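On clarity, I found the account of how folds are encoded harder to follow than it need be. For illustration, here is how one protein appears when written out as sequence plus structure tokens.
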Amino acid sequence: MPGLPIFNLNGTPAAPITITGPTTGPMPVLLGRSTHNTIRLSNASHIVVRRLEVNGRDLGGAGVAVQGPCNHITIEDCHFHGFGGDQQIVAISTTGQPTWGWVIRGNLIESAGTGMYFGNSTGNSPFVAGLVEYNVVRDTIGYCMQVKHQTPWGTVPAGMPTGKTTTIIRHNVFAKSGNSSTGDLARPNLLIGDSPPSGPGASNDFAIYGNFFHDNPSEALFQGEGHIAFYANLLVTSGTALRVQTHNGAVRNVRIFHNTVVAGGSGVLVSGGAAGTTQRVFANAVFAGGSGVSVTSAGGSASDNVADARVSSPGYLGNPLVALPGLILYPRAGMLKKTAVDMSGVATHPDWNRDFNGAAYDSTFRGGYSGEGANPGWSLNIARKPAV
């Protein structure tokens, strides 16, 4: 059978079924075909796919795709390329099936139509309790990553969690470039849709932290709705950085804090907001050519942010207006250290008190870093972020 079919294989939490290339040296190569997706999963669980090169050869198939319910699938340290023939071609996709417990870790996805697409445009393919970390997704035509909104769940597969879960998106690099779609086809680097409006899964949320978002010439770096915590991220773009607004669902409880933004357009825009929800934007450092921080939702508030013009950012940050690899967003001494911020209500989020480098956060700082002067951590680049 073409590619790598993983059908009716089920490991256990203690003994997952692992399909892997060697720990060092060249990876085995899976070649795509026009007639099949390359790695196909159906009725599978507790599977690890590690250290494979997946070359779609721009023949139209996806790199990873599901054909039946799958849970606890790990895709780790793989290299995906050759999926850029069209914006609709996806490197890793869960379209059409309920999926939960997936781990997408340490992969390189280059020049795909869409990097990762979880869920379905109809809202009927829940993606639940995922972990997406330490990936590099670069030069996509459309989304680097999208998690679609969810409608009320119908039949819940056995084992899928129905209580509150959190999908974690952390320590990734999401970077677009001049090959991005424009006009009606323009897409954010990362888009998050709403949880189900009622029933199981309605309280599910997203924790998005420690990521580096770099450039999008035609859309926002991040757009989201639903229950979102967005913190300790770095965002640099010629356009708009962050937009929270209704899309297919509703804007619900949102916390945006300790992010550093350098944007040619607007910085942080929050609108909408379902009745009884709150949207809090605080302790960010935002330098924008347009609006810095704008919160217009009825349940929204903005406080303790440092906001200034983009052209003024070199007075606050090390070297914020140059191309990579010289870009430095670490604070200059004495510029982003203010008074302590009220951090109540965010301690339920994972690593809520860690900065972009993984250091303990001193709440007197604003932005993604807790510190000033010389950066002791990672030098920014379009490469895998070191473990923090």
Summary: The first strand starts at residue 4 and ends at 7. The chain has a mean pLDDT of 97. The chain has one domain: 4-154+163-331.
